[in-house]
Amino acid sequence: MNRISIPALSKQVQTEADAYLFMEELIWDGRPVCPHCAGVRKHYFLTPKAPEGRKARTGKVSERRVWKCADCRRQFTVLVGTIFHGSKIPVKTWLFVLVEICASKDGVAAREIERKYDLTPKTAWFMLHRLREAMTRGDGFTTLTAGTIVADEVFIGGASRRAKLARG
Ligand SMILES: [Zn+2]
Predict the structure, then answer these.
(1) 20 and which of 35, 37, 65, 164 could share a cystine (Cβ 3.0–4.6 Å)?
(2) Residue 134: inside a domain, yes or no?
(3) What's the whole-model pTM score?
(4) Is 95 helix (H, G, I), strand (E, B) or coil?
């Protein structure tokens, strides 16, 4: 993957589904790997359905890209094993803030992120903290080094490590 800038990312990632797709290309190189059994044989993409029941009123179709493994029959998204997994913050926002951090020579201020992405002060601080920590640790799912996004070996290390990464 080439150097990615905020304008380049803005062009490529306009919706939450785009953000998932971007991550899939980055981590899987377009070919899904099941995080549960490491199966690569065949995966089915589950087309998002319109919400039912209480949520039906919103009429909003989920933009999460969910896959089902033909080997173990379990469902997964590209976020399993990454620090984005289980977060209520949109993947799209995570990606932009990550690139902001990496594109900035002098560091990114929480207030800047807060204003630019319409976040609460608490969320902006949390995101910066979480991303910096993952990058420093170097074993996060993605590290951006010298302007290049490098996908770490997300699915290596087993469930305990994945759980550890997914927490918090
Ligand atoms: Zn599987």
Answers:
(1) 65
(2) yes
(3) 0.76
(4) helix
